[in-house]
Design brief:
Layout: E1 3-9, H1 16-22, E2 28-33, H2 40-44, E3 51-53, H3 59-68, E4 74-79, E5 82-84, H4 86-98, E6 103-112, E7 115-116, E8 126-132, E9 136-138, E10 147-149, E11 153-165, H5 168-185, H6 192-209, H7 216-241, E12 245-252, H8 257-263, H9 267-273, E13 276-281, H10 286-289, E14 297-300, H11 306-317, E15 321-326, H12 331-339, E16 344-348, E17 359-361, H13 372-383, E18 408-412, H14 425-438, E19 442-445, H15 458-461, E20 466-468, H16 474-482, E21 486-490, H17 493-500, E22 505-509, H18 514-517, E23 524-528, H19 547-550, H20 554-564
Parallel strand pairs: 1-2, 1-4, 2-3, 6-11, 12-13, 12-15, 13-14, 15-16, 16-17, 18-19, 18-21, 19-20, 21-22, 22-23
Antiparallel strand pairs: 4-8, 5-11, 6-7, 6-8, 9-10
Helix pairs in contact: 5-7, 6-7, 8-17, 11-12, 14-20
Length: 565
Amino acid sequence: MKISANVVTFNEQKNIERCLKSIAFCDEIVIADSRSTDKTITICRKYTKKIFSMDFTGFSAVKNACIDRSKGEWVLSVDADEEVTPELKQAILACVNSGTADGYYIKRNTMFLGRRIKHCGWNRDYQLRLFKRSKGRFNGKPVHEAVEVKGATAKIDEPLLHYSYPDSHTYFTKMNRYTTLQAKEKQKKFPLLRILTAPFLKFFRMYFLKLGFLDGFRGFILSIYSGFSEFIKFSKMWEENNRIKEDAILLRAPNWLGDAVMFTAFINEAKRIYNRVYVAGPPAVKAMVEGNPNIEKVVIYPRKGIAATIRAAKELKRYRIATAVSFTPSFSSYLLLWLSGAKRRAGYGSDFGAFLLTDRYKQDKSHNREHVMDEYRQIMYLVNTKFNFAGIRQFVPAQSSAKKPQPGVVVSPFAKFGPSKMWPFEYYREVIGYLLKKTKQHIYVTGLPEEMDYEFGDEIKGNGRFHDMRGAGLKDVVTLVKNARLFLGNDSGMMHIADAFEIPMVVIFGGTKIGYAGPVQSKAVLLQAKMDCVPCYDKKCRYGHYKCLKEIKPETVLKAVKGLL
């Protein structure tokens, strides 16, 4: 029954030799060292060759790494400032040979300022330190780690000597390290009253209820120190809960679906620079951001109403985000960034509410200067010049798990923006009718439930290859577009979804400028009539004739579609 002794070290030259001598009876000694800078490693090499270095990420992680490198059937986990007594050695060997349990709790006697503490609650300190390697693992906590054994356990009363606190300097050095780990481990809110009362309750419990006064003046000092440790622990928790996270960024997503699709191209790069990425936006963009593995948290709230903005900001403020960027120009968006507590706030500087920003991007209102994705790049650069946006692509998360549809042509005749983006419906009907007659393509029409009033006629509806998907959920529609052979539609959110999947497309533009918000892929035919009033960004034609759309005839669109099929 071989025993592997496991020891974790970090600058333990004062203690380690005493420890290693006491466990020399074990079949092997495995040491995990967290980059010691003193003579610890030199001393360890006198007793074992199985020494490996790793960064300290918590006691459980390091001790489990030791277990993974052990070969013995049994593991004896000992700290560098502990010593196995001869009596405990014999008890360990007897337990291993008997095999009556899978793990053993060992009594530990702890020294404080050169003498054993017999009270203060330290007299009943049993630690599970001996266990079968196949049955035990540390529980994952960074501090106050414990072994969890799958099987029967028993106790060993022969003591393990713990020389933890030979002097006050050592006590406070360890206290500072442990309380920092505890503060990061435990991020729960707690009342201020607990910070004030916990130190006194700790002292009272140790010195009076646990009979610490019987340990003399050492018992009094230890009780005082322990109470102070409670104060430091909760103070660090408060500090951690209120710390502004420099490694976190908040991205306020655009309001429109198409803009939100383009916005997704920037999330992955944000994650590369920042450890945590938070996204906030209206329900319309929910499907474009939920499920993205690079997003820590998505906060969805209604666009209209200051109360909803305040509630969303209150939630975001809990995360203590230092940097925030708005991809939509609106007062409520800038208010959200400001109320979230972000120290640095970037967005469009030419809109009302820009005074709430610390960094402002001056937009070209004529939209002649750059594509909207280039605008997004410039806004992101305002908060961090380390971004590298070369080769970025839109990312639409995996959507519906429904059966993959038969590939075909997805037609999106509508645009939520308004009629100034909608090619005449009768033109779409003519193109669809031709495709059903002259090709073997399946035709899928997408749209919202309120767009069901547009009729296709019995000849089209009666064709088995025509699929009316109006009213279908966005996730199902995204799956449909992802598997399409071709997309035909207006300058709309659906066009941007197809662009994200690099689906060949024919897009009809009305008054909006192609170079500002058009697709970014190469497999796209973009059609726009030459008009004196183009570009125009009105939702309705100011002249009422919509010639910029009507001048593009069905035969022109059909020619483009056939060229891509």
